[in-house]
Structure prediction request, 123 residues.
Amino acid sequence: MKKSGIAALLTLAAALLLTASACSGEPEDLSNTPALTPAAEQAPMQIGDEQTDVFLTAEEKLSIAKGYIDAPVEDLIAEIGEPVDRDYAPSCMGSGDDGNLYYDGFTVYTYREGDSEVVIDVE
Prediction:
């Protein structure tokens, strides 16, 4: 019993010694420690193509795109991100251009005239 009591005292003494040296009042070198920023000061999460590309499946993008028929293309792109590719040709519907915006798994058909471009169909 004496040996276990002495061991316990030695363990307690060692723990106190370590605590005392850690709290010696000398400043700790934190130059290699990354700074923590309070949540209120962190930069806001980026919203746009990169985020929507990561979180929306092709099926979800297609479903959302169908709700943008007759709406400005800018609104659609803000919602589901930029197309993979696009092309335009003179339109037979008016003096503007017909557009094809290619997404993974579907195409958005548009009509562009001047500064305005509208979603016509989605397949």
Q: What stands out?
A: Residues 49-122 form one domain. Confidence is low (pLDDT under 50) at residues 18-23, 36-48.
